[in-house]
Amino acid sequence: MSRPRCMQCQRPLSHCLCRLIPRLPSQTHLLILQHPDEQRHALNTARLAALGLLNARLEIGEVFAELPAWLDQGYRDCLLFPGESARVLPVQGDDRPLRLIVPDGTWRKARRLLYCNPLLQTLPRVCLPDGLSSRYRLRKAPQAGALSTIEAVVVALQLQEGEGRFAELLAPFEALIDGQIAAMGDVLYQRHHSPKPTQPAD
């Protein structure tokens, strides 16, 4: 029998994160396109990002037939996804505010979203700078600079609109990680996930 869940954050009621989720304004609009498999992920950070921002929208699916209607509408649309043509944030343009379209899923599933929605492939691409590291202490990043969706959103918004303005978005993310570590137990966490000490050079 499944445990009762919060209708908003989708966490078990005993571990509800809603008290930590802010409601932050932003000039930049976030359109997060989530692969359906991510809904069941224990760390559904895209949902936390969408709940924490007043100017954000979360859509779940693999093919988004209504995507053309969601785009433009007074915004400059850019795809937050690496590629040879991607420009590092922040980006300047005309007087219209920026809209970031953010695919949410593993790298393979995110690329699948682009394949299934060719309109995404026509959008200008933006990316984050090199050298970032994730706070997700329970998972080894699949590649250098790989962040969870909520971390990528926070970095992108702070680059575009100002450092420190969106750090509060990470509070439920940090609590979620701390809760998972507590459930695992310190001994098991230290054995499998704690950073290994570096060996001194000879």
From TrEMBL:
Its EC number is 2.5.1.25. It is an enzyme of class 2 (transferase). Keywords: S-adenosyl-L-methionine, Transferase, tRNA processing. Residues 2-185 form the DTW domain. Belongs to the TDD superfamily. DTWD2 family. PANTHER family: TRNA-URIDINE AMINOCARBOXYPROPYLTRANSFERASE 2. This is tRNA-uridine aminocarboxypropyltransferase. It comes from Pseudomonas fluvialis. The lineage of its organism: Bacteria, Pseudomonadati, Pseudomonadota, Gammaproteobacteria, Pseudomonadales.
